[in-house]
Structure prediction request, 181 residues.
Amino acid sequence: MVWWFRPPSNPFVTVNFEVDATEARVYLAKLAAAGVRVTLNHLVAGCIGYTLGQHPYANARVIGQRIVQLPHVGIAMPVNLLDKAGLGRELSMAVVANVDQLSLASLAEITSKTLHAERDGQSKTPLIKQMLDLGNSVPHTFFKSFLRVVDLAANTPYIGDIAYRHFGVTTALSNVGATLK
Prediction:
């Protein structure tokens, strides 16, 4: 995905940090005791959705040299498929739309359903599966060129709007080294 993060139209902010999650884990344990399974990744996704929902000017993309505010927060998260035999690839993407409008419990439930669908080869976003399959079946240099063309098209006003309406993704959340299992 490095091809996506290049200037001058790069509106993405990459953040890496360490946080003491002791209190968050206590909160998650209380939810679990009440029968609500929420992981730390769900909690972070919920925080991103809430924060961007409260600060809509930060929920934007650069499309055609303009900053375009997006109406809702959608999050894409990598899905580990390494131990899933027969899918022919090692990674997929779970896309959860309208995160800014979901409760934490709803977010966890929708994310889990989306995750299981990806792992069962029943992607809720078929275009992502097609892109991943294409990436695995063509030479890397061709695929990289193809992604550049997709990137250029997605940064035009008309195609950019269609891409957002189709995917609904405004941000990506990665837990490097421990993708959702």
About this structure: Residues 104-119 form the longest helix (16 residues). The two ends are 20 Å apart (CA to CA).
